[in-house]
């Protein structure tokens, strides 16, 4: 090489060192070049930078002299290091001469070329991607190089191009190439992108988010070319904390764009989505995306998912003319799109993974750490499934039922309300009938309500009234209704705190969701056979308070107030037999139904009962109720003294039971307001007979009801004596 030639801005010392046969001297020259180029970068002198690169390429890297070529390669690498992030502006000038040296006959020179390119690529990173094709060709040659050192160097360079950031940038560049549709290959590398998205490097995550964002835009623009089904599980797998928001965002778009195509993956989607619904405001965006996913997925479940597989195949068979139906061609708002709407003969049947969904929902209900909003969402799902796919859902009811009952003990009122909606749907759905006739072989289940206990030879204790004719106005429940009532009362019995804190709330809501008469009828039936008499008395007291005070029971109170039909009389008798577990509740029921003479007869029997503090407190509450709006009609009837003598006698009976207390003063004052019957007698009827218009109902055997009351109270007395004996003699065996 002519050393006297002008190589400025390179100094003669740099030129001599670049041509030296010793590597150490060439390295010193490279450091000088690096320093020189950094100065040009600081001055923003791109012309001088290009001039230096041109000299190194033409006069050194492409020289005929081997040592000069080696000096040129190390000099170009030094330029790249000095340029840093700006090296992308000069990549073609830097890369081309290096790639030319890949074909050199000298293996040492090929190795130095590989080393130089490694340093250039390491600095330029993603900026080299537009040159990916030529780089790939060069690497392909070196991969088969006979020299082991050259081959090893090429492998290092290959690995450099495959680091996470490099991969993302390669994909980003390829995605921008118009002739390449990467959406076709997205299922093959989407998993890798989400793995990279979870990288600890903030920079790598940022680049990956940009790339994924670009792909999501393309998916929205071209949904017909997207293989949603192949990517659904990838999103489910990568729904952990670090990348959860991105995963949920993609999942939301997939569900909205793909529609029922994602139904087979519903259980996995719900596994990822449900926990996010209980996030606080720190993860508000993730929670909102998960909520949208959950809502959209729920809307995809329709009654057509309740048909059997054979029926589904029949319905999806092609029409006689071989063309898809209008419903198929308009699916999800995309008409004439082959991915969503192939000819029905080619379209695979979309099957709802109901078993998997139920398993996921059940698992979240059983998990005590599940958040409140997640539990609500689970119950909404169950309700929706029972509405849309009742036939298939009832196959899972026996396994779900215990946990649904347990959920009634939840701390949240909103959770309990949703739980009651599910239980009410189970209890009233026609799909819950065990056979066509609605009968049930289970001895613990009954499909139709009936008057309890008081049945003799097919006839209840109502004159001429058959069991099957008792309450035609009450809608029939299915075989799970009676099972629900039995288990609910059993739960109240085992969890007295639940009965005390939430019992009235639960029963009132059930009266709204189901027919109130059904609820009271069935509970009275069950309580009649209750062996725990103390619980039976407490439960009757609770039901009686609800009956007399709750707005939800207005219609039922009106039905009982006027016993003029066989149905209302049947209801009264049904309640009465269980109400006998609580004497004061029985009297209040008689007041409600205007059976004043019977109320008086009952009060007469109170003298034979054990009068406890609790008993007197119940009488006190009854007096307070008499002064409430519920019994306005009763107080007004006190004006008609002649026709309501037993009402007055019954109230005086209560007065005589009470000690001198506030309730005594209240009732005494009320009775003192009862007018003199002589003053109230009308002129038109001066000798009217004194008669209680509610003396008796032709449909009700009152003497039998009194006998029933005596029998029940005898049982209570016997149990109290047994308890008293055990407390006095704890070691004595009865």
Automatic annotation (TrEMBL):
Region of interest: Disordered: 304-329
Top-rank taxon: Eukaryota
Alphabetical keyword list: Membrane, Repeat
Any Pfam family matching the protein: Vac14_Fig4_bd
Sequence ranges assigned to domain Vacuolar protein 14 C-terminal Fig4-binding in this UniProt record: 496-674
Signal peptide interval: none
Keyword ATP-binding found: no
InterPro entries: ARM-like, ARM-type_fold, Vac14, VAC14_Fig4p-bd
Location(s), subcellular: Endomembrane system
SUPFAM superfamilies for this protein: ARM repeat (SSF48371)
Single biological process term from Gene Ontology: phosphatidylinositol biosynthetic process
Entry GO terms, CC: endosome membrane; PAS complex
UniProt feature, compositional bias: Polar residues: 314-323
Record note on quaternary structure: Forms pentamers. Component of the PI(3,5)P2 regulatory complex/PAS complex, at least composed of PIKFYVE, FIG4 and VAC14. VAC14 nucleates the assembly of the complex and serves as a scaffold by pentamerizing into a star-shaped structure, which can bind a single copy each of PIKFYVE and FIG4 and coordinates their activities. Interacts with NOS1.
Record function comment: Scaffold protein component of the PI(3,5)P2 regulatory complex which regulates both the synthesis and turnover of phosphatidylinositol 3,5-bisphosphate (PtdIns(3,5)P2). Pentamerizes into a star-shaped structure and nucleates the assembly of the complex. The pentamer binds a single copy each of PIKFYVE and FIG4 and coordinates both PIKfyve kinase activity and FIG4 phosphatase activity, being required to maintain normal levels of phosphatidylinositol 3-phosphate (PtdIns(3)P) and phosphatidylinositol 5-phosphate (PtdIns(5)P).
Family (UniProt): Belongs to the VAC14 family.
Protein name: Protein VAC14 homolog
The species this protein was found in: Cyprinus carpio
Lineage per the UniProt record: Eukaryota, Metazoa, Chordata, Craniata, Vertebrata
């Amino acid at each position: 090489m002519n050393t006297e030639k002008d190589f400025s801005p390179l100094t003669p010392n740099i030129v001599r060192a670049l041509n030296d046969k010793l590597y150490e001297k060439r390295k010193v020259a490279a450091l000088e070049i690096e320093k020189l180029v950094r100065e040009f970068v600081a001055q923003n002198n791109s012309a001088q930078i290009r001039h230096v690169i041109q000299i190194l390429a033409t006069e050194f890297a492409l020289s005929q002299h081997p040592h000069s070529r080696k000096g040129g390669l190390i000099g170009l690498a030094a330029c790249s290091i000095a340029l840093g992030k700006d090296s992308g502006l000069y990549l073609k000038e830097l890369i081309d001469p290096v790639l030319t040296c890949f074909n050199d006959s000298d293996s040492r020179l090929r190795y130095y070329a590989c080393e130089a390119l490694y340093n250039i690529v390491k600095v330029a990173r993603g900026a080299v991607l537009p040159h990916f094709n030529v780089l790939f060709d060069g690497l392909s040659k070196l991969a088969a190089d006979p020299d082991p050192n050259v081959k090893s160097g090429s492998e290092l360079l290959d690995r450099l191009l495959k680091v996470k950031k490099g991969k993302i940038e390669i994909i980003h560049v390829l995605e921008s190439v118009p002739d390449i549709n990467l959406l076709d290959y997205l299922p093959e590398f989407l998993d890798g992108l989400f793995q990279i998205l979870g990288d600890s490097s903030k920079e790598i995550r940022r680049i990956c988010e940009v790339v994924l964002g670009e792909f999501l835009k393309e998916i929205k623009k071209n949904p017909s070319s997207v293989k949603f089904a192949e990517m659904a599980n990838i999103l489910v797998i990568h729904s952990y904390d670090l990348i959860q928001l991105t995963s949920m965002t993609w999942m939301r778009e997939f569900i909205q764009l793909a529609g029922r195509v994602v139904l087979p993956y519903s259980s996995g989607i719900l596994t990822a989505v449900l926990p996010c619904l209980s996030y606080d405001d720190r993860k508000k965006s993730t929670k909102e995306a998960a909520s949208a996913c959950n809502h959209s997925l729920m809307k995809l479940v329709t009654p057509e998912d309740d048909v059997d597989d054979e029926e589904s195949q029949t319905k999806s068979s092609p029409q006689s003319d071989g063309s898809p139906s209008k419903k198929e061609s308009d699916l999800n708002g995309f008409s004439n799109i082959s991915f969503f709407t192939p000819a029905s003969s080619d379209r695979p049947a979309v099957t709802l993974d109901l078993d998997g969904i139920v398993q996921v929902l059940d698992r979240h209900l059983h998990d005590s750490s599940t958040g409140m909003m997640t539990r609500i969402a689970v119950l909404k799902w169950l309700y929706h499934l029972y509405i849309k796919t009742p036939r298939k859902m009832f196959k899972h009811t026996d396994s779900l039922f215990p946990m649904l009952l347990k959920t009634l003990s939840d701390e949240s009122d909103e959770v309990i309300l949703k739980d009651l909606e599910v239980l009410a749907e189970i209890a009233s759905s026609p799909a819950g009938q065990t056979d066509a006739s609605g009968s049930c072989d289970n001895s613990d289940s009954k499909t139709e309500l009936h008057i309890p206990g008081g049945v003799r030879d097919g006839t209840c204790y109502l004159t001429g009234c058959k069991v099957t004719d008792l309450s035609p106005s009450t809608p029939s429940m299915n075989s799970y209704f009676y099972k629900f009532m039995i288990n609910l009362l059993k739960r109240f019995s085992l969890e007295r705190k639940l009965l005390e804190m939430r019992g009235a709330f639960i029963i009132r809501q059930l009266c709204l969701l189901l027919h109130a008469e059904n609820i009271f009828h069935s509970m009275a039936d069950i309580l009649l056979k209750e062996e725990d008499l103390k619980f039976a008395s407490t439960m009757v007291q609770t039901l009686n308070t609800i009956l007399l005070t709750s707005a939800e029971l207005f219609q039922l109170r009106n039905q009982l107030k006027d016993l003029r039909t066989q149905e209302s009389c049947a209801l009264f008798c049904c309640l009465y037999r269980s109400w006998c577990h609580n004497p004061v509740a029985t009297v209040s029921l008689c007041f409600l139904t205007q059976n004043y003479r019977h109320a008086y007869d009952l009060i007469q029997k109170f003298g034979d009962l054990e009068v406890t503090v609790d008993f007197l407190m119940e009488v006190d509450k009854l007096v307070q109720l008499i002064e409430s709006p519920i019994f306005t009609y009763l107080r007004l009837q006190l004006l008609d003294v002649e026709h309501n003598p037993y009402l007055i006698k019954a109230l005086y009976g209560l007065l005589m039971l009470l000690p001198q207390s506030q309730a005594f003063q209240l009732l005494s004052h009320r009775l003192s307001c009862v007018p003199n019957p002589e003053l109230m007698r009308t002129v038109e009827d001066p000798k009217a007979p004194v008669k209680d218009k509610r003396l008796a109902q032709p449909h009700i055997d009152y003497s039998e009801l009194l006998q029933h009351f005596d029998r029940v109270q005898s049982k209570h007395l016997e149990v109290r004596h047994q308890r008293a004996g055990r407390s006095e003699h704890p070691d004595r065996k009865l």
